[in-house]
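User: Run a structure prediction on this.
Assistant: Running it now.
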Amino acid sequence: MSETIRTFIAVELPEKIISSISKVQEDIRSYGFKIRWVKPENIHLTLKFLGNVKKADIEKVGEAIFESVKEYSPITLRAKGIGTFPGIKRPRVIWVGISGQLDLLVGLQKTLDEKLEAIGFPKENRSFRGHLTLGRVKTKIDPKRFSDALNELVRFESETFVADRIILFKSELKPTGAVYTKLVDASLI
């Protein structure tokens, strides 16, 4: 069997944005919920999760990324609001939303999805909803108390930042948490 690499394509966040999102994590953490938090340095804006990709196909994925970014200039965004998937009563994922030039971000993700489909990666079935995962809920938590915690942060909004590159990351799952390594780095022009 061919060796594979677990991968995803994402926008890396500037340190100042990560710092403000980290404060949101700390605010929620202060409530004592059992949540597996994403390390602040690992918070990113995923455009496409590829899963296990054959090492031999990494170059083709890189070419699809470079083809996709040719059509886009840098995109102005901000982290804004907070929510959960699938919902507040049975949360599994806690996230911060994205606002700003969403039409361009959605367009970039769609272009990327199409270029990747052309080389054999299935298109996403769901509509793209840009978000930044803060943590994953592994146990049942009191929805009322959890809702109260999130309501404290509903007006959260970061400074604006510019998404000017997309990156293909290798993701290695370790007991201490995921370790991400850049494989391809493509600039929006």
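The longest strand covers residues 44-54.
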